[in-house]
Records
---
Amino acid sequence: MEHLPTCIERFHAALQSSPVLFFFIVHLTIGRTFSVLAGLWVGLSPVELIGLAWVGDMMNIPFFATLYELGHRGLRLSSAIGRWLDRTIAYLEHRRFYERFAGTGALGVVVICATPMWGCGMWSSILLARTMRLKRLPGTLYLSLGSVAGSIIILALAGAVQMALKLS
């Protein structure tokens, strides 16, 4: 265990040599909240993080939109994915939480996308936009706005926590 600080220092040095690659690995596997925090850890600036998070979130749109489209048309990649999509959409359509956000229209898509909580973010907001039948361009603009707003919220929360730790 005496070598643990040395291992952490080596790991941190390796990440600092390619912080953008590290950011995208975290972003595409765990999500925006953790990727922005990890980007801060490896020394990326807030402006870089907002831009990188936006690019990472925009990369998610074609994947999830295609997945939902294939599930909707019945051209399923597998019957398990199709059943899962059907159950998820049916589950959401009968929840008050979903009804509230769907009732707010585009604002609901932006809010769900910007919320840094598990279960919110791009996956949920793309599904919400899809079930609300938003057209592609306006939907992408709302998702884009939510992505930037969510990154700013995460950075603000991280800054507040950092200031609170320094004061104590």
---
Amino acid sequence: MSAPGDIEFRARWREELEAITAEGKLVFELSGKQVYFPNEQRWRAKAPVWAREQWQRYADACRAWCKQNNIRFSLEHDAHIEEERA
């Protein structure tokens, strides 16, 4: 199920959450009923260049997805963020 907007979220079997856009795919940690999302400082340090200035867009969309799916959204200073390339 997607959040409102142009970011599609998909839970994967390996306790991961994909965020898919036309620009690319990012992967975050999803553990049970909680998403560990990088805080803005972590995002700027670890996100790929094309996503670096889009923290608020992704954070808002992920919060909305979490709310729709009854999953806790947690901002973390050490959260996993990874770009997945095709």
---
Amino acid sequence: MKHSSDRSISPLGQSDRPMSVDSCLALIRRRSFSLVSWAELPPITILQRGDLIRLSHGLSALTQQVTSVIAALNTLRVISGLGSTDLIDRVQAVLSLEDPALSCYLASEMVKNALTELGKQNQVAVAPLLSVSPNSAAIPLGVAKARCRAVSAAYRRLGGHSAALTNSWARGVADGGSDLDVRFFADHTTPRAQRLEIAEGLCGEVVRQYDEGADLDADQFALDGIKIDVQFHLMGAVDRHINSPGAASDHPRLLEAVQTSLAVDDPQKTFVSRQAALQRVACDRGREVAVAALKGLEVSMAMPLPSNEIEAEWLIRGEILERLTRAIVAHNAKFHAYPKWLHKIVPDLNRQPENTLERLGAVAGTGGESTKLRWHEARSLMDDISRMVRVAK
């Protein structure tokens, strides 16, 4: 990637508006969770899995998070010595993908440095890294289910009725770098403080909980050397997304959790019944998600391509790639919120534009394509899937 002549970037994503101290601290807390997660699953692990589209998308999100943290810390005047030019050079090197292994190494170094700076600040509570070493092979599915049941049994003391395995375990693609993703469903909100006591009782270690202001409500901890990520959902929200037209387009990842998860602890068949209900309306909800994603794409692509290369990379690999992914998969009555595992998902889709996977890879820049070429490919792919959605109406 060549350096842009316009070297100004807005790491906070809020132009140049000043942020209050509270806003900076809230941003730092939110980003720190993401940075810690990336440190637990190094980018090189994704590269080794061969999922270059996810790697490209992830590096874009990661550099945004790092620059947001550094900008907020600088705003609070708690660090010094890292100039904006140095930061731009580092971000451009990570995003280049000319040498994916080098990009992964530099990304990991950026995360480590950002977390080190965060750890020096007393006013920001950054959870320590979990010392989880990926195994060479995934644990057996039976062991994963047993651990899911143990986690569910502990949280059931606070209420709740269903638990399921999701993500790589539910899709059958888990490996030694996979954490154990558990979805816990309840009728009422589970108190965070009491959840913390239960999680600490399970693992005997410091537990990380997502920030109150984050989109997710989750606990993360390590159990027998495996990272556990427990996300909590209200069954009422699940029902709204399944039964209410328009609701699915706001947060399709909740429907993804229902559609793709593997029920493990569901004695009353509460969760399984929702999967069956979603199956009956999947085409309708999928069309809603696809239409909403395409509308967002049209708005984004009606604007000119940003002249700043970093901002162009963030836009194409982030927002545009996500919405393209969402529209194509939802058109097939499936829900998939982010560009991961596409190399395993897209080949099985019945309705898709020609050479979809290769074109998504070109949008992500996995072959070193220029931003202008990728912008053009994204627009072409958007037009193709839009025609397919209109014809299927």
---
Amino acid sequence: MPKPALLCVSPSFAPATTPTAIRASALVARLARDWDVTVLTETPQNRTSAAATSVVDTSAAATSGAHTSVPATAGPRIEVVPARRPTRLLSLLRRMRLGKLIELLVWPDESIFWVRPAVRVARRLVRERRPEAVVVFMMPYSAGLVGLALQRRADLALVLNLDDSPTCTDMHPEFPSRLHYRLARGLEDRYARRADATIYVSRTNLELVRERLPVDARERLELVRYGADPARFAAPVASAAPGTSAACQPAWAPHPPLAEPQRTPGERFEIAYVGAMSGWWTLISSDGESANPLKRAYDAWTRLGRHSLIELDPGTSSPAVLGRAMLGVIAEHPDWKGLLELVLYGNPYPDDVVQRALATAGVQDVVRVLGPAPHEQMPGILARADLLFITLPNRLDGSRGGRISAKTYEYLMTDRPILAAVPRGENWDYLEDKPGVWLVAPDDERAMQAVVSELAQTKAEGKPLAFDRSALREELSYDTRAREFASVIHRAIAHHEGRP
């Protein structure tokens, strides 16, 4: 019996390493066991990803004759549709420091230029593949418009997966204007009212949206969290000096290694953070250059008319607070100098920005920053670390946050201690009862110092801590998440068939 067809729309997809791409790719690979899945994406495919899929490139270069296709051995069929962005114009505006105009005029995001070509290709795919449903993975939020267009024109069940709510104040504490906030809220509400199912990854955000929707739309909100792949985390990891694996070398020159004699991996206490931090520019703004009158005027212009919902502390999304805590530990234990190190893997920011920020914060002696590494290498990075670090920006009004870091679930797949510097809210609540997790406020330097001192001391005594989280593996597994996701798709199809 042939598999039922499913069309998935995900502008960000493997081999991209955004959280949405990782989630969409993991779920689609598992859904393809029971569905004939076609993926519509903007992400170019490399030979590795093409080896397990059928890739059709609809770019101008590829379509000068006919679609180029790589025969599939397994997995979904992938159609690559490039966006028609006015790239030169957008680049010119950024070079002229007029990014504010892009914020004001390009809505809801730059992927709006992908919507029209994506709809055109998607309509052809609907005729050819006859899917039972359309699943859209967001961010970016423009992708949902593709789903609405197909639902209206092809009469298909629609499932919208919102990784982060467009109105989540942890992700979007401010907007270019009050109008842009109203547009974002209106778009999210429209998505939830029109879709046959809308998926969130945060219960807090789901409940906030549920409160403002009509009763019939509330019933179609679903929670399917992020996950991780147990098989990858169960694989044996070859020993290597922390942060020195050739596989983890950055795309740009990293912050220079700490100047000290070579030591064996067992002597160093490494704290690992995987992913991008966003607080670098906040640290730099305090280094004196911001006193420049022209810069102050430019900053005032960029903030003109902005609509703020909540004030976050971007500096807590940086290594500054933990770095100072580590320096405090070294002050208490001078013989540990050179042994404590916070290593950031996956930083996309320029090296000069990073080095200025580290120097301004005074933590350059205990922090090393490495560039992007393939997501497949993360289990090895985490397994080598002595402590895993999560941080989210502090909410200065003390209100509850709705965001939960995607790395939460992958960290929990390990046996490593976890230091979570997160505000009260979704991420805190989820981690509160998990073994081997130390929860602290994002700005609590003293609490971080106590945790690092305690764990480093246990390692120095030859008794490094590890935690058995095997009971969580089934819950965290993307196999489980895919089953939850498939159930949502079936409910969405049933709802669509029952529409008047």
